[in-house]
Amino acid sequence: MEILEKLLDIELPIIQAPMAGVQGSELAIAVSRAGGLGSLPGAMLGIDSLRQEITAIQSQTTQPFNVNFFCHSPPAIDAERETRWRELLTPYYRELGLDPQSILPGPGRSPFNEQIADVLLDVKPAVVSFHFGLPTTELTAKVKSTGAKILSSATTVAEALWLEARGVDAIIAQGIEAGGHRGSFLSDDLSLQMSTFALVPQIVARVKVPVIAAGGIASVDGVAAAMKLGAVGVQVGTAYLLCPETTTSAIHRAALRSAQAQHTAITNLFTGRPARGIVNRLIRELGPVSPAAPLFPLAASAIAPLRAKAESQASGEYSPLWAGQNTTGCKEVAAAELTRQLAGD
Amino acid sequence: MEILEKLLDIELPIIQAPMAGVQGSELAIAVSRAGGLGSLPGAMLGIDSLRQEITAIQSQTTQPFNVNFFCHSPPAIDAERETRWRELLTPYYRELGLDPQSILPGPGRSPFNEQIADVLLDVKPAVVSFHFGLPTTELTAKVKSTGAKILSSATTVAEALWLEARGVDAIIAQGIEAGGHRGSFLSDDLSLQMSTFALVPQIVARVKVPVIAAGGIASVDGVAAAMKLGAVGVQVGTAYLLCPETTTSAIHRAALRSAQAQHTAITNLFTGRPARGIVNRLIRELGPVSPAAPLFPLAASAIAPLRAKAESQASGEYSPLWAGQNTTGCKEVAAAELTRQLAGD
Predict the structure, then answer these.
(1) Contact B288 A196 (CB under 8 A)
(2) ipTM greater than 0.85, yes or no?
């Protein structure tokens, strides 16, 4: 028992899911100090910010923490697809008084790279987790050489076997109910994505490394249920979204507290990769999944001005309101308290 | 505790899911005799067969059993849609050497009606469950007057509240991972469908009637996990599909035993209503969800000859290979043994 606690040197088998865009070091610090594993999302941080955020964590706690990175292959910009995407969005630009000509394709999120690995060699976080598979063998080896335990998400049995073969220390089985980006990397066929109830036991039956359950877990009973399915711990994201240590926007918070939160969908509109969020106008009218959306992360740049303008008018109709299917655990309590509640501590 | 056992007068909190097309009285008898609640699917039975099957159960056991019915509103035949549907299927008719002109639109499954209610008044099953909501108020009252406990499936919180307001004795919370037809009836928006992990606690939090979990439950640990989420019992279908008491076809059995079973999808191709089955050629090429498929149950008649011809050639590429996302519980053991295993008995 307590396999995860031993592996990661933590007190409680609760990993706070890294959530790029809605949290920084503050949430990670609170969770790690409470005995769980706090996570810093690195996907949207430049090198300097990454270093600052990690330094901030290390100045506040000596407990282990996790730094998370995306490891997609950045696509080439497809001019035709970009044009089609902008055409599709033009009525919204017009409605919000934006000039479609002024919106340029941007680079968006960058994947894990050599430079980031160098930072990790310096700062030596206890845990590094990846989304969308793993970096190259060389880069992965470099991360291992820091002494960090490596985690990554699997959304199918095939992905779990792939990760195990490449030496991860534990696998996060991400059920279809999870909020934010699907971690899938071997196939883009959404029908392959399974629920936590179906996925966890199937992965547990096939791999030897410890399995962490993610998706739909929002209470101490949910944690116990995930353990019953064979998980050694859980990764929880959505439940933390209302904690004061997050940077969740007022619009996002209001949506999470409303009945709207009962309707989420997996959509590719905001970034080009499937991710679960609360259904809003953009999803209703163009999605949830549009073949016109440019590949990850390129779809985001054409959405950004719509989102900014709408949010300035207190509207979340063009914002990625990431959330899982079970928002019943969202509470306006300190992250430390929520962590202890989830662990039944 | 043991709320479900008391409510339904059963020993084990295990309901065998009614599975039209792959089982009759034999499976229901075995499960009820083992102390669970066996179910007879009535959806595809004529009045005489229904009566015979119920008589068969009552001659073999005095234990409670469940009879299940669909309660959809039969749609009018839309000639244009039927034509479009047949056009879409024509390449397959050609490939299999079938004459598209010989295939007529048929009536398909009929919903619960007055005549069936009369049979129930006679035979008085202990439990009657419905899929796709409930029959009219009058018909529902008539079923209640037989003394039967009434169950129905909810796939959203809204559906659970709807069913509770209409007096069901318990609600089956059907997670998105469940095999066969979605029980949804208030909306056809598939993005509203939630996983067992997300759905069960949300329904439990909102209704006073007992909640039964369905979807992805395939082992004694799965049952325990569902109970942790607040369910008082479970409804299990997929795990029973290989039991000798089922009529699951050899083709369907082979698919369930193969790696193919790891890839299921919710499809409307076979009947017109969304249902989860193992992905085969028809689903890959036309679906999983096609707007051309006629409304339930009309889509089935144009598929029937393709299915029959392909199955005669040992192919399941046009068959509804219903299965949930978690087939790890499928075992070639007697249904009584499986029932006891699920209950940890």
Answers:
(1) no
(2) yes
Tell whether A268 and A193 lie within a shared domain: no
Can you give B89-132 as a three-state secondary structure string? HHHHHHHCCCCHHHCCCCCCCCCCCHHHHHHHHHHCCCEEEEEC
Q: Are residues B185 and B287 in the same domain?
A: no
Number of domains present in the structure of chain A: 2
A73 has a pLDDT exceeding 60: yes
Residue B345, both tokens = 């008995």
Cα B195 to chain center, whole Å? 17
- Digitized pLDDT (tens) for each residue of chain B, 345 residues in all: 599 999 999 999 999 999 999 999 999 999 999 999 999 999 999 999 999 999 999 999 999 999 999 999 989 889 999 999 999 999 999 999 998 877 776 656 789 999 999 999 999 999 999 999 999 999 999 999 999 999 999 999 999 999 999 999 999 999 999 999 999 999 999 999 999 999 999 999 999 999 999 999 999 999 999 999 999 999 999 999 999 999 999 999 999 999 999 999 999 999 999 999 999 999 999 989 999 999 999 999 999 999 999 999 999 999 999 999 999 999 999 999 999 999 998
| Edge-first strand listing for the sheet containing B14-16 | B14-16, B233-236, B211-214, B170-174, B149-154, B127-131, B65-70, B38-41
Whether A154 contacts chain B with CB within 8 A: no
CATH number at residue B185: 3.20.20.70
Identify whether A165 is part of a domain. yes
B325 → chain A, closest CA residue? A198
**Do A280 and A228 sit in the same domain of this protein?**
no
Evaluate whether residue A247 is within a structural domain.
no
Mutate one of A187, A194, A195, A264 to test the B interface: name it (highest B CB count within 10 A): A195
What sign does the CA torsion over A118, A123, A127, A132 have?
A: negative
Q: Do residues A48 and A123 both lie within one domain? A: yes
In whole angstroms, give the CA distance from residue A202 to residue A157. 7
Q: Which domain holds residue B178?
A: 1-74+110-241+327-345
Is A249 part of any domain?
no
The position carrying tokens 């996790």 is: A66
B158 and B20 belong to one structural domain: yes
- Whether B249 maps to a domain, the answer reads no
| Domain co-membership, B86 together with B152 | no
Give the pLDDT confidence score for residue A280 in this predicted structure. Answer: 98
From residue B47, alpha-carbon distances to A74, B29, B92 in Å are 61, 20, 34
Residues 212-271 of A with CB under 8 A from B: 215-219, 221-222, 224-226, 228-230, 262-266
